[in-house]
Specification:
- The structure is a homohexamer.
- By secondary structure, chain A is an alpha/beta fold.
- Chain A contains eleven helices and twelve strands.
- Chain A has helices spanning 4-19, 24-29, 51-61, 90-120, 139-148, 166-172, 175-185, 199-208, 220-230, 247-251, 262-265, and strands at 35-42, 46-47, 66-70, 76-77, 82-89, 127-129, 162-164, 192-196, 212-216, 236-239, 257-259, 272-278.
- In chain A, the strands form three sheets. Chain A has a six-stranded parallel β-sheet with strand order 6-11-10-9-8-7. Chain A has a four-stranded antiparallel β-sheet with strand order 3-5-1-12, covered by helices on one side. The first copy, chain A, has a two-stranded antiparallel sheet with strand order 2-4.
Chain lengths: 280, 280, 280, 280, 280, 280
C-alpha cells in the first residue's frame, strides 16, 4: 500500500544512518559466520503495524535472511506474543536489529493509538483522520500506520488537497475572497475545504461555496449547532486539541470526521524486543 | 553543532515531502505578492530546541524571509511566549509553516523531557544519556535536542563505539569470549562497554577487561551492589525501562550514567502555533 | 509557481547531462576571460513560457551573469522580438546556451499551442485541461506551461486525484462496484471522477454517485445528450483525440472541460535563437 | 545499447513523478489481488522504439509481471498490431501504464520520423544526424530512438566532440583564431568541426585546418559549390531548418550528413493504447 | 566487512564516471553478442585486496557474468599468478575492465605496502595503523585494504574518535585546557588521545588525564624516553614521516602503534592485467 | 576548468565522509567561538595544483572563512613557501583541514610528476598524455592536475573517444574487422585510434583506415621504424611501462604522444601542512 520505492529509500537511509562506516561491535565480536534465529516479541498489548518494513530492513541488509513466521499488520497483539521469527547470519541480524525495531515500534505505536480513538467513537458516524503533523521524512509510514489502526487519511501533503486554514484566510482578507479566488483558479473536479471558528464563519463558508468545512477548536455545543446548520450539505471535520478523553463527546455532535494530530506528532513507541538464539 | 549538510538535507527532504508538485491551497488563495509577519508562540511551558532548523526551513524555501526575533535553544519558555518573529512573502510562510513546526515541536519536546530527567537526578553523580532508539533519519536532530535539554549523547550509531549487548554475548558464546575477540580486533585507543544483567556478569566483565559496563534492567539493590563492587574502576551506565518516576532511585545507587530510550522513542510534541498577520 | 527545488533539480540534471566532464569546445576555443552579451530572439510568433527557467539555467552555471532585459511569461511575442538580454563571461553563456534553449523552446511551444486551443473555444463555457501524457521527469514544467497558455491543470499525478478510467472499470468489474469501493475507502473530502463511453454509462456513473464524469471519445451528438442528461449536477470533461480542428465543435456541446493530450505529448518547439556579441 | 544505469534511473524518476505518495485511484478501486493481462496496441503505423524501456517500467514496479509477447525495436508496425502482451497484478499494470506509455510513445515517435527522413534521402550519400536539441534529461533515450530509426548520432553532449559554432567564432574573434587555439589545446586524436555560413568561410575553415565542416542554413546552390570546393577532403554536414520537404534537395547537393533538430525537439507522439483484460 | 551499500555506491559511481552515455568503442567494434573469458593476471608479486570489489564491478554491470575462479583477499601472490577468471558477454567485460582494475590495483597496492610495514616491525610489540590521509570518497576501501595487509585501522573519520592534535591544542590554549574541556563534554565511555611533541608535553598530557598519546615526529631517543615515562599506563602511538627505512627503529622504542600516512596517501598501484579470450 | 557541479559534489562527498555525524574532537575541545588564521605551507618543492578545490572545501563548510593569500595553480613552489593563508572560525578550519589537504596533496603530487615527465621530453615533439587509470570518482580532478602539470588529456572516459585496444581486437577477430565495423557504425566526424604491438599491425591498421595508432609496449627501435613507416600520416601515441628513466628515449623515436598511467595510478602525495594560529 506504500509505494515500494519510498519504503526502500527510507530503509536504506535508516540503515546507512545507523551503520555508516560499519558496525564495529559486531565486526569485533563475531567472526561473521555465526548463524541463528531471532524472535520479535511484544512486551505489551498492541496493534501491529509495519511488519513488512521490519522484514524488508533485514532483507535489504542481507537477502539470505529467512522469515519463518510473521504476523500480519492490523492484528491485535497480546503481550508476550511472537510477532516474527527469522533466521540467518547473526552478524546481519544484530546489525539490522535496532533500525528494524525503530520502524516497527513507531508504526505499531501509531496503529495502537489510532485504534483506541476508533474504539472511543464507535457507534457514531465519526471517522478518525490524521494530519500533516508527522515526523519529517516518514509521512508515508505514519499515514499507513493510521490506516492500519482503522483511521482514514486526510490529504497526504500540500499538493493533493485544497484546505484553506485560518492563516490563509488572514492572508487572503477573509473567507469569502479566499474561496472565490480558489474557485477561479482550480478545476471543479477538486473540492475546497475551509477552516472555520464559529457559526458565523460556517455560514460565510457555505454561502461562498465551500465543499467541506473544518470546525477548529469549537465547543461541543457550537459543533452541534454547526452540524444542524449544515444539515448534511457538505462533510464536516472537527479539529483541535482532540484527546481520548474528549473524542467521544465530539463524535456525538454528529460531525463526519475528527482529525487528531497526536496520532503522529506524539507517538508512544510500542514495546517490542528482539531475542537472538545462536545455532548450536 | 549539527553538521550543516545534514540539517540542510533533512530540511530539503521534509519540504519536498510536504510540497511535492506544489502547495495548491496557497497557489489558489493568494496572488503570491502578499507580505506580512508571523509569530511562533508557545502554548505551554517548554525547553526550546531546534529554532535554527525552524529558521532555516523558511530560509531554504525563501531566502528573502527576515527573522526579526528569535529566542535561543536551551531557554526555558513560558506558555504564550513568542519564540520567533519573521516577515516576508505570506505564500512562502504558509507553505513552510507545517514543516518548520514539525521539526521545532519534536525537538523542543525532546529537550523538554530531557530537562525533566536531568532535574529529577540533580544532586546525584548520574548524567542522562540518550540511545539509538531515534526516529529513522532524524538521529542527528534527536541527539542534538537531548544535548540542548542537558543530556549527554551515547554513541551516535553502530560505527562510533563498541557496546557489547546481550544478543552479541549470546552470538559470541559468552561475555569473556566476546570481550577477548573484541580486544584482539580493535585498537587499544577504543573503549569496550559491555551489557550485564547481574552481579555475576559484572564480575565476569571486569575480569575479562571491560572498560565500561551497562547494567541492564537490574533492581536498585543490585545496582548499588554493582557500584560497590566496581568501586570506580570503570564507568557504569544503568539502562532499561527508566521513567521519570524511577530515575531518581536509580541515580541514587551511584551509577555514572542513566540511558533513557523514551527521550527519543516516545516524544510528546511541544505545543507551538504560528500566527500570521497580513501587512496592511 | 513551480516549487524551486524542482526547477533547480531539473536544471542541474540538464546541465550535467550536457556538460558532463566539461565543454571541450569552449575550453579549446576561448581563454575563459572573454565577456560579452547575448540576446534570445524569437524567430516566429509565440506565447512565451519558461523565461525564468531559461534565466536560472545561466545563473546556476554562473551566478555572475546579469540579465538586463527579460520579457514575462504569458506574453504574446512577435517574430524577431528580443525575449531576453544577458551579459557576462562568454564561456558560461556558450556552455549553458543549448540547455537553456531546450527548456525555453519546449515550454513556449506548449504555451503557444495551449493558447491556440483556448482561442478556439472562446465564448463557450469549456476550459482546456492537460493530461498526464507529459515527458517523463518534466511534468511540473509541462503543466506550468499549460497554465501560462491559459489552460487549467488536471490532476498532477496518480496521487492527487481519483479518476476511474476504463481499465480500472474492467479490473473492478464495472462502474458501479468501482465507485462503491472507492467511496468506502476514501474520505468524502475527495471527489471521484469516472470515465464513461456512452449514455448508458453516464447514467450508471451518476446513479452510483460519481462527482464528475469524463466523456471518452464520444460523438458530439452523444456529448450533447450527456450534457442534457447531467443537467449541471456534476462537472463534465470531454476527452479523446481532440484537435484544433474539432475542439470548437466539442466545446459547443456544453461540456465544462476538454482535455488535450497533444498539448504535452506532441509539442512543436518554439523557434528561438541566442545571438552572442563579444565585448570590444 | 543505452547504459542500464541510465535507463533504470530515468524509469525510477518517472515512476516516482507519477506515483509519488501512491496511486489513489487504484488503491481505492481494486483490492490489490486482481490479476489479468494487458496488450499494448498500435493505433497507427509506426517504427517501434523503446519496447525495453516500456517493459522495464513495469518490471521495476513489479518484478512478477510477465511479458508473453514483445516485438523488437526497429520493426515497422502496422496500425492495430499488438506490440506487447503482459500479465500479472492489475494494480501494478494500471499504476505503471501511463509512465510506460509516455516513454514508448515518445521514442516510437522519434524513430518513426527518423525513418521518414532516411527514406527521403535514400539513394544519396547523405546520412541523417540528430542534434543536442533533446528534452532535458532524456537525451540517451532520444538519441537511441534516432539510431533505431536508422539515423546516426552526432556528439552526445558538450564533452565528446569539438564543434565550433557561430557564437564560438564570434567570441574567439574569427574562424582562424578559433581553430588555431583549439589545435593547441587539444590532442591530435580529436577532430575539429567548424560551422560555416558561406563559401568564404568554407575556404577559411579549410585553410585553418578544420577536420570537418557544418554548412549552416546555406542554399542548395551554395552547398553544391561547397561540396565541389571541399572535394572530399573533409566530411560535410548540412544543418538548419531541415524539413521532410527540403531534405532530399539538400541530400542531392552531395553532403555527407544532414542534421535535423526536429527529430527530437518537435516529436509527434506515436499513438499506442494499453488494453486490460481481467482474469475470469 | 565493508558495508555493502558503500561498496555498491562506489562501484556505481565509478562505472557511471567511466561509461557515462556509453562505451563508444565497444558499441562500434562488437555486435554485443560475442562471449568469451577473461583472466586477471598479476604482473608482479603482491598482496591481493579488493577481489570482491573487482568481482562486483562486473556483476553490477552485467549480472550474467560468471566467475569460475577467484583468489581470496590477503593472499600473497606471485607474478604471473591468475587472480580471477570470468566469462560472459565480451561487451560487458570490456566495458567494466578499467573500472574493476582501477579498484583492484589500488587496493592491492595498499595491502602490499601495509604488509611490508608489518614485516618490517615483526617481533616488536608495534602494530601498524592507518590515518585519515585517504583519497576522498574511497576511505572505506582504503582502510579495508590496510586491514587485509595486516594493519589496524585508526579512527575512520572525525566522528568516531577523539584525537586532540597540535592545531586543536593551539586553538584551545594548551594541552591541559583542551583535555579538561573534552572531559566535561564527552561521556567517560570515550577515550581521549592527545598528540604530543616532546617529553614535557607527554607529562602534561598524562597529568591532565589523556587516555592515549600520539608521539609526533619525535626522535627515537625521545620516543624511548616517553615509553619509559608512560610505563604502560596508556597506549602510545608514534606518528610522522614514517618510512620503510625507519619504521623498525621506531618500533624498537617500544611504542604500541605506528601510524603511516603513506599507506594510503602515496599508493603504488599493483600491476595487474586483464587478458580476454574470445570463445571460438 | 572543471565543471563546478563536479567539484562541489566531490567536496561535499568528501566532507560528509570525514565529518559524518560531527567532528567530536573539535566539538569537545573548542567553544566554537575561537577564531584565528591558518597557513598551508609546502614542505618540499612541488608544482601547485588544486588550490581552488582546497579553498572551496573550507568555503563549502563555512562561507565566512576568508582567504587573504592564495598562490595560483601551475606555479613551481619551493619548500617552506606559503601556499595559502585563511582566517575565520577555528572550529571550521580544523574540521575541514584534512579533507582540504587530501585533495590538494594528491593534485599537487600529480602535477609535480607530470611536470617532471614534460621536462624529461623537452625539445622533442612528444607531448605527455594521461590515461583512464585514475582513482574511481576523482577522474576530473586527476586529469585537471595533469593539465596543470603541462600534460595533455587523452579521452576522459569510454564515451568520448574511440580507442580500439588489444582486447577489443581479440573480441572482434582482428584489427581489420574491428576498424571496418567501427567505421560503419560511427560518424566520420570521429577519429578511430587503434592499439598495435608490432610493425605488421601498424601496417594493417593504416591499411584498414585507422586515424591514429597507439604503439603498445614496443621497443624504441620498433617505435622508430613505426614512425618512419607512418611518415606523419596519422598521429602516433606510445604507451606501456613508461617511466622517468625511459621516457626521453621513447620521445626521441619521434612519436607525437606518450601516455603515462603512473601519473594518476601511482601518485606520491605532495607534502603540505596546515599551521593554525589562534587570534589573541
Amino acid at each position: 500500500m506504500i509505494p515500494e520505492h519510498m519504503v526502500h529509500r527510507l530503509i536504506r537511509c535508516a540503515l546507512e544512518e545507523d551503520i555508516g562506516a560499519g558496525d564495529v561491535t559486531t565486526a569485533a565480536v563475531l567472526t561473521g559466520q555465526e548463524s541463528g534465529t531471532a524472535r520479535a516479541v511484544a512486551k505489551a498489548d498492541m496493534v501491529l503495524a509495519g511488519i513488512d518494513v521490519f522484514r524488508q530492513t533485514f532483507l535489504l541488509l542481507d537477502p539470505d535472511i529467512k522469515f519463518t513466521h510473521c504476523l500480519e499488520d492490523g492484528r491485535a497483539i497480546k503481550s508476550r506474543e511472537i510477532l516474527a521469527e527469522l533466521s540467518g547470519k547473526l552478524a546481519s541480524i544484530l546489525t539490522a536489529e535496532r533500525t528494524a525495531l525503530n520502524f516497527l515500534q513507531r508504526m505499531s505505536g501509531i496503529a495502537t493509538m489510532t485504534r483506541q480513538y476508533m474504539a472511543a467513537v464507535s457507534g457514531t458516524r465519526a471517522r478518525i483522520l490524521d494530519t500533516r503533523k508527522t515526523v519529517p521524512g516518514l509521512r508515508s509510514l505514519d499515514k499507513y500506520a493510521v490506516r492500519v489502526g482503522g483511521g482514514l487519511n486526510h490529504r497526504f501533503a500540500l499538493y493533493d488537497g485544497v484546505l484553506i486554514k485560518d492563516n490563509h484566510i488572514t492572508a487572503a482578507g477573509g473567507i469569502t475572497p479566499a474561496i472565490q479566488r480558489a474557485r477561479q483558479k482550480i478545476s471543479r473536479t477538486l473540492k475546497i475545504e475551509v477552516e472555520v471558528r464559529n457559526i458565523g464563519e460556517v455560514r460565510e463558508a457555505l454561502a461562498a461555496g465551500a465543499d467541506a468545512v473544518m470546525l477548529d477548536n469549537m465547543s461541543p455545543e457550537a459543533m452541534s449547532e454547526a452540524v444542524r446548520l449544515i444539515g448534511g450539505k457538505v462533510p464536516i471535520e472537527a479539529s483541535g486539541n482532540v484527546t481520548l478523553a474528549n473524542v467521544r463527546q465530539i463524535a456525538e455532535t454528529g460531525v463526519d470526521y475528527i482529525s487528531v494530530g497526536a496520532l503522529t506528532h506524539s507517538v508512544t513507541s510500542a514495546d517490542i524486543s528482539l531475542l537472538v538464539s545462536a545455532r548450536t
